[in-house]
Amino acid sequence: CKIAVTLGLSSMQQVLDNLSDLPNSSGAKDLDLIFLKGIIESPIVRSLAKAHERLEERKLEAVRNNNLELVREILVDISPFIEKDSTVAELTGILREPHFQSLLETHDSVASKSYETPPPSPGALMDSTFNNQPVPPDAVRMVGIRKTAGEHLGVTFRIENNELVIARILHGGMIDQQGLLHVGDIIKEVNGKEVGNDPKVLQEMLKNASGSVVLKILPSYQEPHPPRQVFVKCHFDYDPGNDNLIPCKEAGLKFSIGNILQIVNQDDLNWWQACHVEGGSAGLIPSQLLEEKRKAFVKRDIDVTTPSTTGALCGSMSGKKKKKMMYLTTRNAEFDRHELLIYEEVAKMPPFRRKTLVLIGAQGVGRRSLKNKLIMSDPSHYGTTIPFTSRKAKEEEKDGQMYAFVSRMEMETDVKAGRYLEHGEYEGNLYGTKIDSIYEVVESGKMCILDVNPQVLRNL
């Protein structure tokens, strides 16, 4: 008994159903029928049938690949009935929708397998654009955005070869979150209207637009670079509303002295994109270079001298004499004092518990007084060890307050055993800092402040 290779799962099931209905007069033996039924119900045979069906599965083919032309013909045919029938007017609006047109264009491209043709190089595309030559239809993209009136898109523009090009995309803004536009894209139209070459007019047009906004663009095909994590501490106040140099005041970021900002983009030499570490959207801030130039700029001092009595009709103008000074290495500290502080780069560190704080300095610089001031400023956070001594306690002294009193023999034994961080002898008595006392301060939940000799730091 053989089974045809072309037998599919549905046919196999039909054969099984017919086997039980075979009459006895067919001449088939019961043993043969059982054997045939076992073969058909075998998992291996069914798996082979499934694989065969998958390999023989016919691919779907598009009915036609010129639907866009067909829709245009339909629009021409129904145009006389637009004013007479509301249904025709509604259908016309749907067929003229940019999204529907793009869908048909994509379908026709896939159906005609035009996607197999490699796209033109960006250089050739940009050259043809700037030379006012016809742009390939497949190079134009339609981007749809939904927004409310007055909502900022988080994008700025510049003029490049008499075209409006996206200069920057603000991190965290609407355009950045959608990822539909990129730096370098050329804006051609907004809702079917040409944008011209004035960035301010385009900004106002986009700001006042509401609902669905359709942009016609020429892509730049530029790969974005991953941003580098940079955090800075600000050393000046900044309000974009008072800045006449910023390209877009609404895109600026206000900050104060001491604020920590995360720099998310430094591609522009004059304007960086940053956001507060506490959260919020990104905005433009002046770069280090721009702010240094702005703060270092000093207007020239002018003196108007009185006209001389010898007959000069107009007062002569002469600049003040400037004091010239050579740069000397010995005056280096004086020059450093006049260095401009704009931004200070900082690092984001995870919080961790600091067990000890060691004050290091020369003898007599005030380490002990500094330690006492720190402890008095926050006794619940800072603490210190009690020194051990072998001298006898005075009448007003109590053990464990200013000193911990032990015998000389006990102290010498602990010193030999390495239980002291440092020790010394004064007027025949031993003094020292015990390591266990440091652990006691740390285990109490406080930071232990030490003013020990720098040579013992290797033991900590």
Automatic annotation (TrEMBL):
Task: List UniProt keywords, sorted A-Z.
Answer: Membrane, SH3 domain
The terms describing its cellular component in GO are: membrane; organelle
In terms of one coarse class, where is the protein primarily found? membrane
- Domain SH3 intervals: 227-295
Show where the Guanylate kinase-like domain sits. 354-460
Compartment list: Membrane
| Any one Pfam family match given in the protein's UniProt record, by short name | L27
Q: Where is the PDZ domain?
A: 142-221
UniProt domain L27: residue ranges: 8-58, 60-118
List, alphabetically, the InterPro entries matched. Answer: GK/Ca_channel_bsu, Guanylate_kin-like_dom, Guanylate_kinase_CS, L27_C, L27_dom, L27_dom_sf, MAGUK, P-loop_NTPase
Would you identify the family this protein belongs to, as annotated? Belongs to the MAGUK family.
Q: Return the protein name.
A: MAGUK p55 scaffold protein 2
Q: Which organism is it from?
A: Latimeria chalumnae
